[in-house]
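Troubleshooting: if your tokenizer reports a length mismatch, compare your output against this known-good record of 313 residues.
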Amino acid sequence: MESNNNKPNIDPQFHEVWDAAGQYKYSFENGNDDAWQKFSADMANKKASKVVSNSPFTVQRNFKQIFRIAAAISLIAVGAWAFWFNNQSTAILDQGNYTSNSGEVKEITLKDGSVITLNANSSVDYTITKNARKINLNGMAHFEVAKNPNAPFVIRSGSNQVTVLGTGFDVRSYTNKPLQVTVNHGKVRVEKLAKNSQTTLESAILTKGMRATENPNSVNKKSSYFQIDSSVNLTAVQWNQNGLKFNNANLSEVISAVESQYGVQIEILGNAPSGLRNNPNPKLTATFTPQDKIDFVCKVIGNALDLNLVYKN
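Known-good structure output:
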């Protein structure tokens, strides 16, 4: 120890020994050497703890490490939430496929409360998720759709698409026959899509009493893709599990309904005038049950309208 300006200059190491000695708890050791070794060890431990706790580099390094861990946990949490949310949106809530035979009508109730009445010689498959209700139809069906604005009810048939806006309607889409959509109540949007694409070429909004029929002459857009009828007689043709019912129905509606129900093609023989099938007259009122055979049906229609009808499968 040396004096500078009459003030003692105390070695820092002496301070450490002095402070450690003040905090040292006396214990009985075997000898002075053992006591000094214990005291020295206590000093070394306290010095190491002081260096670690007072080191700004260590604190900064630990902070960066903690920050990285927190960021990683946040990313994992966000990713897990996104994965869960996506799975919730795309998880299948209801799924099925049905086929009906000749003369058979099936009623299918979906889990969302919608009802599909599948006409004879038809097939339908559907997939329902939280955000979408997708239906594929081949043939004819009547739809009573439960409202759910968060899950659009969309029917696909070839290049045609029908989007339901809360309604009851018929869709006819048999192979080699033009699409036909008839609205009983509510509203639908009918769209013609580009081949292998979701691009809309033409669309039409239908409400109660309206019918859209695909125009077979609309090749290369020389004419409209759909023919719209705004005053359809909704009671003219009624079909369900109880059979066929005609109420003042014109011949084209009668023949089309019978062909759909029995899976046949009907021809008019004899001296019937050309184009009679598409003529609004004559008209028929009659009821047929599911037990009635096609031969009987053609005979009754022929006798009532003074026509000779034949059919082929």
